[in-house]
Amino acid sequence: MRKCVAPVVLALCTLTLPAWATAQTADRRWRVELVGGVAVFNMPTSGDAALPAAGPALPTSGPTNPSRRVPTWFLSDGASLLNGTNAEFGVASRLVPLDAALGTLGLTGSNAPAFGLRVRRQMTSRVSLELGAELHAGSVRMSDELLDAVDQSRASFEAAFEGLFTSGPFANVAVAATSTMTGQSSRELLVSGVVRVALLEGPFAPYLTVGGGMIQRLGDLPRIELVGAYQFTVATAATQASFAESDALTMRYTQGLNLVGIVGGGFEQRLTERVGLTVDGRVYLGRQTLSLRLDSAPQVTTRTPGAFVESFTTPAVQFSSNPSTGRDSTLSGTPLNEFEAFGSSGLQTRISVTAGLVIRF
């Protein structure tokens, strides 16, 4: 009789264990997972570049010295007019335009720490649904090439205008140019929904994930403001006329909402009935829309008495201190407003690797 009891008890225990495990799973179908790790990403490089078109003609003393209205000296037609005038006067200094540097997006990014919260609902013994929110606290900055181009343009602004003014009957000349950069750091919030499929059941459970989400940038992307200003006086037989103008160009980035597909995998190690650990890797694929936009603010100070000065070159530049003279300054073009100098809408890849603490309830 005793010989029979032991096998029966063993058989009952064997049959009861899966039911007990299933009961535990049924009782604790929810999982909360706190994760931390690193996110690796790259910035898109391909896209479409554009420069502002030449502005309308500006009235001058005659057709042999034409000029055009420009919204800024720092690029395109503005730099071309100034450099052409300096060349005719034999001035060696030239303004280095930003044209070539604006032919790329000009952004670089570094790997980012990643932190997140994921909530899962166990649907079957192997399949669960997950909602998550993850913060990628990375740093995005302007590329060294773009920053070098901005610095060259700033320095050449001073040299080019000083060269121009020293070639004529100008006095009290003052030229200055500055650049200011903001928004170097930014964060991205990723909201996701995935299906997690366990490949094995038990304390150690490797799994695969597939799903989708959206990425929203928090905070400002890098932007830089380039400001050039000059003033001078011109003595006439009757009086002394003064001139003052400033040129502000802002380069900034905009980013649209990014929808991504998610694939990945990892494993979960159960430590106790309620606590476990995970190691997880995911790839986020999506079309990223980024734009480099330009805004300009040309400003001509009105002075009395009014006067104007023109270079009488081909091409020509003209300065006016008062509209009452019937002449306008070359720096009088319609300001640039969110002009897209470079637009990128390419595929961007992000990879995150995280470790997490899982709590079952």
Entry keywords:
single chain, 361 residues, alpha+beta, eight-stranded antiparallel barrel, two-stranded antiparallel sheet, 18 strands, disordered N terminus
The chain-level structural class is alpha+beta
Percent range for helical residues?
10-25%
Compute the CA-based radius of gyration: 33 Å
What is the molecular shape?
Answer: rod-shaped
Q: Quick check: average pLDDT?
A: 89
Number of helices: 3
Separation of the first and last Cα atoms: 44 Å
Proportion of β residues?
Answer: over 45%
Flag low-confidence runs.
Answer: 1-26
H-E string: HEEEEHEEEEHEEEEEEEEEE
Report the major sheet: 8 strands, antiparallel, barrel
Task: Say how many strands there are.
Answer: 18
**Major beta sheet, strand line-up:** 1-6-7-10-11-14-15-18
SSE blueprint and pairings:
Layout: H1 2-27, E1 30-41, E2 48-49, E3 57-58, E4 67-68, H2 76-89, E5 107-109, E6 112-122, E7 127-136, E8 140-142, H3 144-166, E9 171-182, E10 187-198, E11 204-218, E12 223-235, E13 240-255, E14 258-270, E15 275-300, E16 308-310, E17 318-320, E18 339-360
Helix pairs in contact: 2-3
Question: What would your notes on this structure say?
Answer:
The structure is a single chain. Helices cover 17% and strands 50% of the residues. It has three helices and 18 strands. The strands form four sheets. It has an eight-stranded antiparallel β-barrel. It has a two-stranded antiparallel sheet with strand order 3-4. A two-stranded antiparallel sheet has the order 5-8. Strand 12 (223-235) and strand 13 form a beta hairpin. Helix 2 (76-89) packs across helix 3. The longest helix is centred in the N-terminal third of the chain and has 26 residues, at 2-27. The protein is rod-shaped and about 95 Å long.
